[in-house]
Amino acid sequence: MAVRTRLTVWYTIVTAGILALYLLLSLALLRAQLLRQVDRQLAEHAREVRDALLQRTDFRQAVDEGRIQLPAVPPGAPPIYLQVVRGNESVAARSPNLIGWRLPLDMDLVALNVQGRAAHKTLITEESTPLRLYSLPLMDSGRMVGAVQAGYPLLDIEQTLQRTWTTLAVGGILMLLVLSLAGWWLASLALRPVDHITRAALQIADTPDLRQRLPLPRVRDETYRLVSTFNALLDRLARVIDAQQRLGADVSHELRTPLTTIRGNVALLRRGAADDPQEREIALDAIEAEVNRMSRLVADLLLLAQADTGMQLEKQLVEMDTLLLEVYRQAQAMAAVGSGGVERVAVRLGHEDQALVLGDPDRLRQLLLNLVDNAIKYTPRGGTITLSLYREGGWVRVSVQDTGVGIPPEALPHIFERFFRMPRQGRKGVGLGLAIARWIAEAHGGRLEVESQVGQGSTFTLWLPEAEGFAPS
Predict the structure, then answer these.
(1) pTM recorded for the entire structure
(2) Any idea what the Cα angle at residue 451 is, between residues 334 and 332, rounded to 5°?
């Protein structure tokens, strides 16, 4: 069932319930009001008869002997019947319009009259006519000697209520029909923007161009938020698809070079280079280097894939000063590779506070080594790399500062993107190290920042929350 139909059905059901409740309450109130008017008239007539009897000195004897003349009902007046009964429930007198029959006696009313209390009650006569009866006791020295009864047939009231019910029911049905049509129209009006959004979304789904966006409504209501959310989803989807396309292209590009190198060296070995020990070693070293490069690429891609699926780190208390010292020693070895054991760039250990964090020591070491490796790649010979550690207001700040070539301003917003390499810097890596470093920082509840000036160097700063309750010795 369509939303428009469901809304209309529920609106109609609720409206019908409200109308039915209104009709029932209206009829109940009308019936109560009419009965109050009848009860008031019956009480007035009964009191007139009682007062007239009590003014007589022989009223008790008159009741016993039936010497009572009840007034006739004037023409055009409501058909009120009057009757005087004795204490033994026999009839002492009737009004002229009661000749031939009597008002019914009710034991509940008699019991109340004996207690000296007047009462009203609706009874059904032998002719199945509803009758409203009022019984007023005649008391003499605290003892009931009889009662004055006044009755009113409720046929005209029942007919009035029936006509009123019919009128209200027909009017309610017509009103319900009109309100249902109005509800359908309002539901259609409210859902019209959703229909437009659906058609526009289908058009976007049928085209490979994900740059199209839904037009934003002028009014900032729920529809505006829906369109904004949908456009944001399209933006994210476009970025994901673009990243997948770039990932495929970048991985293909990164694998093509080592595979070409391996294929070339295998061809050399097949052509006889394997017979020359020196040539064979050179070819095998080249193959091994490219295999190691591809292994690192696959490992980095696997780590990022695990990060995207919400991989949980194995955290423990980590002494960051000890970890930084280990990274410093490894950085010295990295800076001397291929330079005959002499550092190509100088690695220095700057300020170092004692600090404790809750984290994965292997991943934190990988993060810092990625920053150091990046600094070594982009720092010319004779440059300096400085590692520092500070404790600041519940945070641990680790900085890796170099005197390298720096990062152009236009490249800074993209420096942590996957497979991003700075232009005009040659091939100096795959472009995954900084992306991995940022993920590790965020997985520890921290952040990774960078400041750089072209020609003066860069500073990468890692912020990590300090472990609670830590106090340096």
Answers:
(1) 0.51
(2) 15
